[in-house]
TrEMBL record:
This is Alpha/beta hydrolase. The keyword Hydrolase applies. Residues 47-163 form the AB hydrolase-1 domain. It comes from the Bacteria. GO terms for molecular function: hydrolase activity. SUPFAM superfamilies: alpha/beta-Hydrolases (SSF53474). Residues 1-20 form the signal peptide. It comes from Dyadobacter chenwenxiniae. Transmembrane segments: none annotated. PANTHER family: HYDROLASE, PUTATIVE (AFU_ORTHOLOGUE AFUA_2G14860)-RELATED, MONOACYLGLYCEROL LIPASE. Keywords: Hydrolase, Signal. One of its GO terms (cellular component) is membrane.
Length: 299
């Protein structure tokens, strides 16, 4: 690489850094760790990418894609309550509470809609909730291997019937998954509480979320197709590889229906060499498709 090119790249990196702000922001008596990029360059009506992290995870988990995206569009990232630098609070982070707090955060920072919401894992559940509570604020939805907010208990049980598990064992596994109490973990309360919220939602077949409207915006799903469970941790009761294959197939069928619930359409992208952290395993694919969504919204 020539000295001239290196100097240009260094200058560009410095310019981007100059338009980044990391700070603590207080809303509803709580301090949230927030990172914004390129907000000063925002054009009138331009969407802002708003990221929701995976269960108990901090905003740094998105660092494989946000640098590149921030060169095209403003970016907002934050840590939910109790995560990393944000204040701890011993309250269950329900979808409505998280959606309310996020909207207050955005208002406090004077980041007006529209937003393209990007959610990974449990963050996908929270993105779906925000989009349902505030559909007029949303310009696009991006789900990165999300926890399945379209799933019912009947759907879950059908996976095991498909792979030959007995009805008795299915009942036992459902009891363990949803109805065996979990002791609160104060040392890891953020992750534990988000897991508890997910369990409670599964008990009701995601009633709170499924009753909310779907905004008529483009929708993207990225699905990781690589089973990452180590052999020693795989189930002894059934073929774990077959379970993963069938579960992904069932999930994608419902997610396709979810995409079709929007008149603006979208895409479901299955990445066979990516695990659950699709945005880290195949950052280029995620970046490229989000940029295409942005481009389409300009028309």
């Amino acid at each position: 690489m020539s000295i001239k090119i290196l100097a240009i790249l260094t200058l560009l990196a410095s310019a981007l850094s100059a338009f980044s702000q990391e700070k603590m922001v207080k809303v509803s008596s709580m301090n949230y760790h927030v990172l914004t990029r390129s907000l000063q360059l925002r054009k009138p009506g331009q969407p802002v990418l708003v990221f929701e992290n995976g269960m108990g995870m901090g905003l740094g988990n998105w660092n494989t894609i946000t640098d590149s995206l921030a060169s095209n569009v403003p970016v907002f990232l934050y840590d939910r309550q109790g995560v990393e630098k944000s204040d701890k609070v011993f309250q269950l982070p329900t979808p409505q509470k998280i959606a309310t707090n996020l909207r207050l955060l955005l208002k406090e920072l004077k980041i007006e809609p529209p937003y393209i919401l990007v959610g990974h894992s449990m963050g996908g559940v929270y993105v779906r909730a925000f989009a349902g509570y505030y559909p007029n604020d949303v310009a696009g939805l991006v789900f990165v291997d999300p926890a399945d907010f379209t799933e019912t208990k009947a759907d879950w049980n059908q996976i095991f019937r498909e792979i030959g598990v007995s009805e008795k064992r299915i009942d036992e596994m459902l009891l363990k998954r949803l109805y065996t109490p979990s002791k609160p973990d104060s040392s890891r309360y953020a992750a534990w509480s988000e897991g508890q919220v997910l369990t409670d939602l599964r008990k009701t077949d995601f009633a709170e979320i499924s009753s909310l409207p779907v905004p008529q915006v483009p929708i993207l799903f990225f699905v990781g197709g690589k089973l990452e469970v180590p052999i020693e941790r795989r189930s002894k009761d059934y073929d774990h590889e077959r379970f993963f294959e069938v579960k992904n197939s069932f999930n994608m069928l419902r997610w396709r229906r979810f995409i079709h619930s929007s008149s603006k359409g979208g895409a479901l992208i299955y990445l066979s060499n990516s695990g659950h952290f699709v945005h880290r395993d195949d950052a280029a694919m995620v970046i490229g498709n989000i940029k295409m969504m942005l481009k389409a919204l300009e028309k």
